[in-house]
Amino acid sequence: MARSVGTELELIHLFVHLVNTGGFSQVAKELGMPVATVSRKVTKLESLLDTQLIMRSTRKLRLTEEGSELFGRYQNVVAQFDRCSEPRVEKAEGTLRIAAPVSIISMIFIGVLNDFSKAYPDIQLHITQNNSSIDLIDEGVDVAIVGGAQPDSSWVSKSLGVLDYGLFASPGYLACAGTPQHPDQLVEHSLIKVWPLFNWSMKHVSGEDFYYEGPAKLTLGDLNGAVRATVDDGGILYGPELFVKGELASGELRRVLPDWHGEQRRISLLYHQRTHQPLKVKLFIEFMQDRASCLFH
Prior knowledge:
Shape: rod-shaped
Low-confidence stretches: none
Mean pLDDT: 86
Pfam family, one: HTH_1
Structural class: alpha/beta
GO molecular function: DNA-binding transcription factor activity; sequence-specific DNA binding
Distance between the termini: 71 Å
Family: Belongs to the LysR transcriptional regulatory family.
Organism: Shewanella loihica (strain ATCC BAA-1088 / PV-4)
Protein name: Transcriptional regulator, LysR family
Order of helices and strands: HHHEEHEHEEEHEEEEHEHEEEH
Number of domains: 3
CATH architecture of the largest domain: 3-Layer(aba) Sandwich
């Protein structure tokens, strides 16, 4: 008789439960099937193995030597399988690995991450801050926060918001160097460039375009440092308005050429699509999207 491994394992599973419960009626009730079906399946297993496993009796179940050997061999295996098959209550715990550019964490999301840690104290956040592209899978990243184009189309992208770029300078710098009236005059000023936008694209409210790819007095990979340099009268910065919101409100910085608007860069969450997404990842995505709706408006 041709043997099917799947069928044989299913029958062995039933046989072990039969022995554990002590009778055909009991196991039929436990597994939700008629007694006749249980008896037929045991007979089928005996036929597949070409051996008698049970000495049938009206009063009690008695195993043959071969039946005892089979039960002993698979008892623990079936028990482990049953434990794995039980519905598992997933907990909000474990290490969540996050990758993001340096400035995005420190200047936008550090408060949100602190609040998430307080809300879910059993989830540990491991944050890798790097302005260079990394292989998210090789690095074991659960969620990445990125700006601009999505680096890997195989990952799911969820938008958090949009950064609006513009020109900013301190009152002290403008008092000394003067205020440009047109982007053409930027070459006469000390300019501060910061990763990743070393070339500047701007559009006037009238529709006129301007593109600057000339030199800068200071070029940085850290936007936080660039903002500090701008506040300290270092020059004119091309950066996202959200990152200097506090400095604009306090008067430490002013908008330069307000009728000229820089480009927009979308900030997104990236995560790998899984059939069963870990709870810690689901909670983080929901938390970030909820808080971002306030940050970017």
